[in-house]
Amino acid sequence: MGRLHRFLSLSFEEQRLLLSALFVMATIRAAVFVLPFGFFRIVLAKASWVLTQRFNKAACPVGRIAWAVAVASRVIPAADSCLLRATAGQALFASFGRATELHLGVARPAPGRFAAHAWLVCHGEIVLGGPDVSAYTELCGL
């Protein structure tokens, strides 16, 4: 089954959610690629505002929002990273009026090696980038 056929088999609300996730992911991917980091949060806030104008804030379960971000990250070129998924997720969750926290952590998987990870928490539960982040030392939550 092709991507278009799968997309057309979704409900109208799921199609709209997925298109919004694709818009946010593409916007954030482009922002990371061309803008200095200071402007990155401004782009994220603007994307959230644009989407806020389009959605009924109580209409979508948390799992469906996370699903849309995961699918979008596989479709947008070079967007399948935990940081891009977490920031896009934060914008999409905000568009539904849901507060989230973006967490950044680091780990040393082996001597001389370094790993970083980003995950998104909504109401105390990891919704993107989990489920187990215990190997990472948290640097900050945004």
Brief overview:
By secondary structure, the chain is an alpha+beta fold. The chain contains 5 helices and 4 strands. Strand 1 (101-107) and strand 2 form a beta hairpin.
Explained architecture:
The chain is an alpha+beta fold. It is 51% helix and 17% strand. The protein starts with a helix and ends with a strand. It has a 4-stranded antiparallel sheet with strand order 3-2-1-4. It has one domain. The protein is globular.
Radius of gyration: 15 Å
Largest sheet: 4 strands, antiparallel
Q: Helix- and strand-based class?
A: alpha+beta
Euclidean distance between termini CA atoms = 39 Å
- Number of E-state strands: 4
Helical residue percent? Answer: 40-55%
Chain-wise SSE layout:
Blueprint: H1 3-8, H2 12-34, H3 37-52, H4 62-75, H5 82-95, E1 101-107, E2 115-122, E3 125-128, E4 137-141
Antiparallel strand pairs: 1-2, 1-4, 2-3
Keywords:
142 residues; alpha+beta; four-stranded antiparallel β-sheet; 4 strands; globular
